[in-house]
Amino acid sequence: MFPENFLWGGAVAANQCEGAYNEDGKGLSIQDVLPHGVKGPRTEKPTEDNMKLVGIDFYHHYKEDIKLFAEMGFKVFRTSIAWSRIFPKGDEETPNEAGLKFYDDLFDECRKYGIEPLVTLSHYETPLYLAEHYDGWVNRDLIGFYKRYVMTVFNRYKDKVKYWLTFNEINSILESPFMSGGINTPKEELSQSDLYQAVHHELVASAWATKIGHEINPDFKIGCMILSMPVYPLTAEPSDVLAAMEQDHKNMMFADVHVRGYYPGYAKRYMRENGISISVTDEDMEILKNTVDFVSFSYYVSVCATADPKKNVRGEGNLLGGVPNPYLKASDWGWQIDPKGLRYVLNTLWDRYQKPLFIVENGLGAMDKLVQGADGEMTVEDDYRIEYLRDHIRQMEEAVKDGVDLMGYTTWGCIDLVSASTAELRKRYGFIYVDRNDDGSGTLKRYKKKSFHWYKKVIETNGREL
């Protein structure tokens, strides 16, 4: 049984849904030059084939969309602030008032329906200027720019937003330095020392945000956000077990620092043995002691690890990759489906930290088909999505029975949006279908899918009826 105050809801990111990429004083973000997602080449300037430039035009449709979220009964809505709406280049001293006003209106609309905003401060949308002129988070100056940004929005929305996340999937910087860290140096030319220097700067900035936020409003609940991908040994051979542990360490280091306030020994060993040298000040180490109130994470897929180079063949997976599990089926995009892995992750994180947990992304990207329903209305018969979510929610309930303190659950892409990994709209996650296609055609009209009504019942019954 889920707690009575459980936060059911859904999640989006500004860069994947808002559109309006150049309206009301907004500057360019790194997403505006990634027309093919994380794996495709970047462009010098925005191009018409970049679906994110329009997204689903949430910027102009947010009132009707939030009304639909309220109809489903959302307790919480996770979104992000586009940093370049507030500081168009990222290094200005004065914020853009039009950008601040938009989020005032957005959060007011949420609160009108009793929906708590859960706001990510940096969700894969570093201002492009900071990437091109500072090399992103490799440069220590970004800590100061980020501090100014978070101080601005914390003060502005201190009475409208209670729940905050500092960086989205912060550990993804290891695989995607440009999208995750705004690092302009090509990945193949980026040294491990510079990469881990950027990691350190983000961790310090995150701790600063926690400190600043608690000073501005002691009632703020500020969490970290990691890309969670459990790593199983491919076999019971001890070297495979150790390979899984070492791969898991690369991700867990980020949560360890956020929750414990210092670098774990295994991270220091990894940097030492791989010749990674980073600059760390005494002030940095003191600031890192500002630890988070809760741990949030995305969960889509699990992977395996092996020490056998012949078997160590990476699957498609999420950003962090991994060896496919021979016992699991995969989605249309090669992401292996593992509901039980969610229970495993929840228990692992709870046992490790004893901090409240929040699942802020989970969902199934699929090629939905709009059809006419029995009532004559257009809909999507997405039983496959209902099955996926039902199986994961059941494992969440098992984890709660295990004693895990779980705050809430926001499904990813509660309304269709543009995929971060592939920049496609045909990879749909939502309970709400948006009539827009990868060729840019469509009316942007919203339609309720079958899962819309199913999730409404789940929330209504606090998870008793699945």
UniProtKB/TrEMBL annotation:
SUPFAM superfamilies: (Trans)glycosidases. This is Glycoside hydrolase family 1 protein. Its EC number is 3.2.1.-. It holds the Pfam family Glyco_hydro_1. Belongs to the glycosyl hydrolase 1 family. InterPro entries: GH, GH_1_N_CS, Glyco_hydro_1, Glyco_hydro_1_AS. PANTHER family: 6-PHOSPHO-BETA-GLUCOSIDASE ASCB-RELATED, GLYCOSYL HYDROLASE. The active site is at E361. It comes from the Bacteria. Keywords: Glycosidase, Hydrolase. One of its GO terms (molecular function) is hydrolase activity, acting on glycosyl bonds. It comes from Blautia aquisgranensis. It is an enzyme of class 3 (hydrolase).
